[in-house]
From TrEMBL:
Pfam families: AAA_5
Record's keyword terms, sorted: Hydrolase, Plasmid
Domain AAA+ ATPase: 280-445
Originating organism: Mycoplasmopsis cynos
Biological classification of the source: Bacteria, Bacillati, Mycoplasmatota, Mycoplasmoidales, Metamycoplasmataceae
InterPro entries listed in its UniProt record: AAA+_ATPase (IPR003593), ATPase_dyneun-rel_AAA (IPR011704), Methyl-DNA_Rec/Restrict_Enz (IPR052934), P-loop_NTPase (IPR027417)
Protein name: 5-methylcytosine-specific restriction enzyme B
UniProt KW Hydrolase keyword: yes
SMART domains reported in the protein's UniProt record: AAA
C-alpha cells in the first residue's frame, strides 16, 4: 500500500476543480454525479443553490469515515474528472471535517454572488498555483496572508480553512488542529535550548491549544510565519515533515498512546514499503542506537525503489580523517618523465553526481556513520547545493578544477548515525538544517515470539534498556539486531542458539556496558539484575575475595568492593531469566 497516496490525487483534483471557478453550477453538477454522494444529495435542500466553493467540494468527498465508501467515491471522482493519479489506497495524515460540518459556509450558496465564496475561490487558486518557481515569493505570500486574514470574517470557518490548505499543499501548509498543536508543543519543549526560537517560545508558552490557534490566525501574516518557524525546527523532533506530523498526531487522536508507541517502533517497517518517501525527501538521516537496522533498512529501501539496480547505489563510510579532496575533488601528485606534477582528480561525490546527471533514473548515496565526519571539511561550500530547492538551480565554481558544479535532482543522500557516538543536537547545524531525520528504536515486537531455554528474549532486552535509560540515557540502549539473526536461524538447535546468546552477552553486551559506565560494576550489575538474584551462580558480576594481608599487616586501607566476571553465570539460563523476572 502506497503511503500518502492521497497527496497526488488531491493535487490533480484541485487543478481540475479550478476550471470551475466561473462555473459554480457546473461544479455542483459534478458533485451530484459522484457515487454514494448523489444518493444522499438532498435535492429539495440544494435546489436553490447557485454557488459552491472548492474547499467544501473536497470536504464533502472526504467526509465519509468508511474507507470502503470513500474508495467508491474517489473511484467515481477519478472517472468524472479524468484524473490520471491512482485512487488513494491510504488516507494516513489527512485531516477531515465530519459530515455535519463538511460545508465551509452557511447560507451563501443560494446567492448569485457572495464575497465569502469569491474569497475562498481566490485563496484556493493562489494555493493551487503556488510552487517553488513562483517568481515573486514575497508578493505571493503577502497576497496569500491578506486573503487568509480576510477569512476571519467567515464565522466558525476560517480556522478550518487551514485543513483545506493542507489538502492542496500538505508539504508546506500545516492544518491548525488541536492534537497537532499539542504534539508540536511536546516536540518543541524537548528541543535543546540552542535550537529554540523566540517567536515559537511565545506561541507555545500559551497553554490552551485553542488559544494558540487563535493567536496564530489573528496576526496578519501569522499563519505563514508559524509554518516557516515550525518547518525549521521540525527536523529536530521525531517528525519528518508536515505530512508525517499530521499522520502521527492523527493516530494519537484516534488510537491512544499505546498504539503510538507501537507505531513508532514500526515506523521504518512502514517506510521500507513506501516508495514515495523520496518524492518528499532527498536528504534523510536514519539515526538511533546500535543494532536497530539503520543501514540494513536503508539498503532495503533503496533496493526496493530501484528494483535491484546496483549500479545506481554508492555506499561509503565517513570517518574523522575523511576529507573534501576524497569527497569532492583534490590535487593528486603524479610522476611524469621523472618530475612531479599535480593534477585535479574528482572525488567520489563529484563522480557520482556526474553519473546521475546523464541518467533519468534515481541514484542513491548511502553514507554510514555520517556523524563521524567533519561535515564542514568534507562538503565545504557544496553543503548548500544538496538542499531540495537548490538542486540544479544553483552552481558553484569548484576551487581546483574551476568547473561549475551542481547537484542533480535525481540524486538522493541517506545517512546513518549512531546516537551512542553523538546526539543529533551535537551535529553540524548546516547538516541538521538540510536533512530530514527518521529515528530507529529497538523493535521488541520482532522478538516477542522468541523464547529460548524458557528465556523471553524480548522482555530481557526491554528490561535491560529500561534500566540503561534510567541510569544513563536513551541514546545508549541496545538494539534488537543482536538477537534477530539468532531468532531467524532455522538451521540451529536450541542449544546452538543459546550458545550464541552467551557469546553475545560475553563479547557484545557486557563490553558495551563497561564502556558506557566506565567499568562501574555496581551499575552494570544493577542493569543485569544481579542485586536481585539470590543465587550467586546466577550473578554476572561477583565480589572478588582477596587477602587483606597482601600488602603486609602494617598497611591499612579502606574497604573497597572489587568485582570480577562470573564465567559460570553465562551457562545458566536463569542468569538471563532473572534479569527481568521479579
Amino acid at each position: 500500500m502506497e503511503k500518502y497516496s492521497w497527496v497526488n490525487f488531491l493535487k490533480e483534483l484541485s487543478i481540475q476543480i479550478l476550471n470551475f471557478k466561473k462555473d459554480h453550477s457546473g461544479l455542483l453538477g459534478k458533485l451530484k454525479e459522484v457515487k454514494i454522494i448523489k444518493d444522499k444529495f438532498d435535492a429539495e435542500k440544494y435546489k436553490n443553490w447557485k454557488n459552491i466553493e472548492p474547499f467544501s467540494f473536497i470536504s464533502i468527498l472526504l467526509s465519509h469515515s468508511s474507507i470502503k465508501k470513500r474508495t467508491i467515491i474517489f473511484e467515481s471522482v477519478k472517472n468524472i474528472f479524468k484524473i490520471k493519479s491512482e485512487v488513494p489506497t491510504d488516507w494516513e495524515g489527512v485531516v477531515i471535517r465530519n459530515k455535519q460540518n463538511a460545508w465551509f459556509l452557511s447560507n451563501e450558496y443560494e446567492s448569485e454572488e457572495d464575497e465569502n465564496i469569491d474569497l475562498l475561490w481566490n485563496l484556493f487558486e493562489l494555493t493551487v498555483n503556488y510552487n517553488e518557481k513562483v517568481k515573486n515569493k514575497e508578493k505571493y505570500e503577502k497576497m496569500f496572508s491578506d486573503l487568509l486574514f480576510k477569512a476571519k470574517g467567515i464565522k466558525n470557518t476560517y480556522k478550518s480553512i487551514t485543513f483545506g490548505l493542507f489538502w492542496i499543499n500538505p508539504l508546506n501548509l500545516l492544518p491548525l488542529q488541536k492534537n497537532i498543536i499539542s504534539f508540536l508543543k511536546k516536540g518543541y519543549n524537548a528541543l535543546n535550548d540552542e535550537l529554540k526560537d523566540d517567536y515559537l517560545d511565545q506561541i507555545f508558552d500559551n497553554k490552551s491549544e485553542e488559544y494558540i490557534i487563535n493567536l496564530i490566525l489573528n496576526e496578519q501574516e501569522g499563519y505563514l510565519k508559524f509554518n516557516k518557524k515550525v518547518e525549521r525546527i521540525i527536523k529536530y523532533t521525531r517528525f519528518i515533515n508536515f505530512l508525517n506530523l499530521s499522520s502521527i498526531s492523527y493516530d494519537n487522536n484516534t488510537t491512544k498512546n499505546e498504539n503510538i508507541r507501537k507505531r513508532n517502533e514500526n515506523d521504518l517497517n512502514k517506510i521500507k514499503k513506501t516508495q514515495n518517501i523520496f518524492e518528499f525527501n532527498k536528504n534523510i538521516i536514519f539515526y538511533g542506537v546500535p543494532g536497530t537496522g539503520k543501514t540494513f533498512n536503508a539498503l532495503e529501501l533503496v533496493k526496493d525503489h530501484l528494483n535491484n539496480k546496483k549500479d545506481n547505489v554508492l555506499n561509503i563510510t565517513f570517518h574523522q580523517s575523511y576529507s573534501y579532496e576524497e569527497f569532492i575533488e583534490g590535487l593528486r601528485a603524479k610522476i611524469k618523465n621523472g618530475s612531479v606534477e599535480y593534477i585535479v582528480e574528482p572525488g567520489i561525490f563529484k563522480d557520482f553526481c556526474k553519473k546521475a546527471e546523464k541518467s533519468n533514473d534515481d541514484y542513491f548515496l548511502i553514507i554510514d556513520e555520517i556523524n563521524r565526519g567533519n561535515i564542514s571539511k568534507i562538503f565545504g561550500e557544496l553543503i548548500t547545493l544538496i538542499e531540495d530547492s537548490k538542486r540544479e538551480k544553483f552552481k558553484i565554481k569548484l576551487p581546483y578544477s574551476k568547473e561549475d558544479f551542481t547537484v542533480p535532482k535525481n540524486l538522493y543522500i541517506i545517512g546513518t548515525m549512531n546516537t551512542s557516538d553523538r546526539s543529533i543536537t551535537s551535529l553540524d547545524v548546516a547538516l541538521r538544517r538540510r536533512f530530514n531525520f527518521i529515528e530507529f528504536k529497538p523493535r521488541y515486537d520482532l522478538l516477542k515470539d522468541f523464547h529460548l531455554k524458557d528465556i523471553n528474549i524480548s522482555e530481557l532486552l526491554r528490561t535491560i534498556n529500561d534500566r540503561i535509560e534510567i541510569l544513563y540515557d536513551k541514546d545508549h540502549i541496545i538494539g534488537h539486531s543482536y538477537f534477530l539473526d539468532i531468532k531467524n536461524a532455522t538451521d540451529l538447535s536450541e542449544d546452538e542458539k543459546f550458545f550464541k546468546i552467551k557469546n553475545i552477552f560475553k563479547a557484545n553486551i557486557i563490553p558495551l556496558l563497561q564502556d558506557y559506565f566506565y567499568d562501574d560494576f555496581e551499575k552494570i550489575a544493577l542493569i543485569l539484575g544481579d542485586q536481585f538474584k539470590e543465587q550467586k551462580d546466577q550473578q554476572f558480576f561477583i565480589k572478588k575475595e582477596f587477602d587483606k594481608d597482601i600488602f603486609n599487616s602494617q598497611y591499612e586501607f579502606d574497604d573497597k568492593n572489587i568485582y570480577e566476571i562470573n564465567e559460570n553465570a553465562f551457562d545458566n539460563p536463569l542468569s538471563y531469566k532473572k534479569i527481568y523476572e521479579k
